[in-house]
Amino acid sequence: MTGKMAIIGSGDNILAFKAGGVDAFTVSSPEKARETLRKLAKEYAVIFITDSFCRELSAYLKRFNETAYPIIIPVPDGEGDLGMELLRSAMESALGVDILFGREDK
Amino acid sequence: MARLNVNPTRMELKKLKQRLSTAKRGHKLLKDKSDEMIRRFSVIIKENKRLREQAKLMLSDALKEFSSARALMGEAETENAFNMPSTQLALDLQTESIMNVLVPKINVQETKRDGMPYSYALVTSEADYSVKKITEAISVLVQLAVVEKKVQMLAEEIVRNKRRVNALEYIMIPQLEETIKYITSKLGENERGALTRLMKVKSMINERQE
Lengths: 106, 210
Known about the structure:
Chain A is 37% helix and 20% strand. With 106 residues, chain A is of the alpha/beta class. A 4-stranded parallel beta sheet of chain A has the order 3-2-4-5. Chain B is mostly helical. Chain B has one domain (10-202): Helix Hairpins (Orthogonal Bundle). Chain B is built from 3 helices and 2 strands, in the order H-H-E-E-H. Chain B has a two-stranded antiparallel sheet. In chain B, strand 1 (87-98) and strand 2 form a beta hairpin. In chain B, helix 1 packs antiparallel against helix 3. The longest helix of chain B is centred in the last third of the chain and has 85 residues, at 125-209. The radius of gyration of chain B is 35 Å and the shape is rod-shaped. The chains are: A alpha/beta (106), B mainly alpha (210). At the A-B interface, strand 1, strand 5 and helix 4 of A face helix 1, helix 2, strand 1, strand 2 and helix 3 of B. Strand 1 (2-3) of chain A pairs antiparallel with strand 1 (87-98) of chain B, so a sheet runs across the interface.
């Protein structure tokens, strides 16, 4: 089985992804992003979403954790690092301790 | 701990003992599963962290290049340069099973084209670099995507499993033990009651015969 990739974001920067064979979808608001995502989820295997939208939609994105595909991950867009936050919260809920970032906090 | 609402009979006792041994075995198995999942999880999150840092660097690099390319070229040329993919990344989607959790696994097949998919005359060198970098960044991003999904799915499974282990350990098993104890003592009491009654009857009969 082969799959396609898509990116959902707000800025023009995501157009750069087209060069790598990723379909880019520019949306203006989180609601639109959500709608686009719902359509894309059936068709694409890997969907990138810029951090800021991902944060808004985090509750909605949880439902995709049940199945292997589609994979939806945040890509950094300059503000904060949502991917690391998600990683951290997953780790804390699973292990109860922080084994990656512990040193940075002290 | 509340005991189960059952009749104190031998049959119930036998059933409960069976259930207790099953529960104990299940508890042990789930605990082992949990240990192994946590071990694998800790390996994967380290990988995830490494990939994310790498992807972030590559991406910001590529996007910097992209914005300078845009600044140096006209709108139409930029569109031309970036609309055609220079490398086609074919994703071969598979799933693999980690501790019975079906996680994605993607083989990335890169089919490179010779040179760039646009005319060099109109496009600046910044765009060339940018296109190249973004392609590299995307293949790292795909790997990252797979690992990240694994982390999320495993984390969820670990939490679910933990809940099962706890339910067995702190609710199910104590309840069963309590009920078994109750039935055993009740049966013992009945037996002692029957015994004293027999002794009493015997002594009454003896008295009457004398």
